[in-house]
User: What shape does this take?
Amino acid sequence: MIVVKKTLIITHINSEGPGTLGDFLISQNINVERVNFSQGEVLPKDPLEYDAIITMGGPMSVHDEDRYPFLSEEIGFLRKAIEGDVPLLGICLGAQLIARACDAWVGKANKQELGWKDVFITEDGKKDMLFQGISDVMRVFQWHEDTFDIPQGSTFLATGWDCENQAFRYRNAFALQFHVEVTREMLCQWFEGSPELGTILQGYEEIETDLITRAKTLYSNFMWLSDIRKSAWAGHDEHGRKG
Assistant: This one.
């Protein structure tokens, strides 16, 4: 069992919580702290206090800093985490914020992606630890209008038909444009009253077992990176000096 001292989850809106990711962390007895911007909560001062950081989705754009000042604060926070090699995972909006923290372009995609779509792991992605034990083609849930460029110096991990850039890795930071964390309850909340709900739930039920299995494998791979980092830092003081 992987035990991580402290993991931070950043949420931007109540309805886009950690889903199956939260369930996984609980099952592993991982100590989790949460910051929910929609509840007026604020980021901690130092991202280097954490063994892993996860930033979730949200309906806003990364360019909506005037309406949501916390976005600028979060980009700076994520940049510090990246510079400190803290394992970082971003989902949907969280992925776009990581791209901005890496000084990459984020803006409108050619078309909106909504619903269950296939994502294809690249040749480099197949070699990356995040996707070990996961099939080369993943059926995932998509709901976004924006996209990102792959930051300079990053590894391009996954692509799609309608939106080319689906995932990248920059140092210890992973950005996933798609949702791997969704639960049936989350989908019901997102699409309550929508005529699309029935079709979306049918798609979920068709792949539920595979979806959850793949998600757990991905989460485990990500948290393993945190364990590796802790081992590498063993014997160093808080400033990174070897004892």
